[in-house]
Write a structure and sequence with these properties.
The structure is a homodimer of 155-residue chains.
Chain A (H helix, E strand, L loop, with lengths): L1 E10 L10 E12 L4 E7 L3 E7 L6 E9 L1 H11 L3 E11 L2 E8 L7 E6 L13 E4 L8 H6 L6
Antiparallel strand pairs in A: 1-5, 1-8, 1-9, 2-3, 2-6, 3-4, 4-5, 6-7, 7-8
């Protein structure tokens, strides 16, 4: 098992773009999301696919299990997950010794931009770039499983 | 993707035991079972583990995706699935050119014995052994996900 510890913020400006070092298109769908577990299938640039099981959230961390699966399977599983699918372009932005992931949402969530940063432990001090705004780590409306069920941007 | 086509019956006597050729202990839990998809984790003799995603049932068949995963992960995932876990000993019983699987349930479903046979296509003719009784293929109470949620034997 891995453990995912991450913090998430709204993005307030485009200032991150100058520092972005790469991007990828993520398409991800949810076969299940309940109190016990979230089951996510994700393709990256339609070339690589991962099945991820996440346990219940505890504070800002949760158990996470990832398995690489054939892309052909993933495309079918995304079909099975419809309409609970989201699409976003993820940009990698180094800042303060960490790699920030800036997710620019597409489709029905177009206009939403979130920044995530993964931590080694919950107490880790993070230097916030000035292009991030409100922290939404604990705001369930902004977790991807919720977004996949929502019709539009939360607000 | 594979496709699972199977028929399932109640078992009426122990006459299958004489023909059984082997058995294994299955422990399986459900991280999700909704109209869209069932997500099952299963260990076999606590030595091999498989994560299985099944799509919606169509008649007697459904899409099925199987991925081998580390047993250590599976044990943790079974913990996550609690109390929606069932345990059964599966006996392999050759009959009429097919391998029947006779599942003897343990724990809170002790006393329940089901026989399953996997088919190549939905129209395949099956010779029924005389130790099977009522067919329960379409009886949702006897699917394993339902059993994992039930307190006792259906009836």
């Amino acid at each position: 098992m891995g453990r995912e510890i991450e913090r998430k913020f709204l993005v307030m400006s485009d200032a991150w773009q100058a520092a972005a070092t790469g991007s990828m298109l993520l398409r991800q769908g949810y076969l299940s999301s309940n109190a016990k577990a979230t089951v996510r299938v994700r393709t990256t640039d339609d070339m690589r696919a991962v099945l991820t099981l996440k346990g219940a959230v505890e504070g800002i961390s949760r158990a996470e299990y990832e398995y690489e699966i054939p892309v052909a399977d993933a495309r079918e599983l995304l079909g099975m997950a419809e309409p609970h699918v989201i699409e976003k372009r993820r940009h990698l932005v180094p800042y303060g010794g960490l790699i920030w992931e800036v997710d620019v949402f597409l489709g029905r969530h177009e206009g939403l931009v979130l920044a995530e940063v993964e931590l080694d432990d919950e107490a880790q001090v993070v230097t916030l770039p000035d292009w991030v705004g409100v922290e939404v780590t604990q705001d369930d409306r902004y977790n991807n499983a919720s977004l996949s069920r929502a019709d539009a941007i939360p607000g």
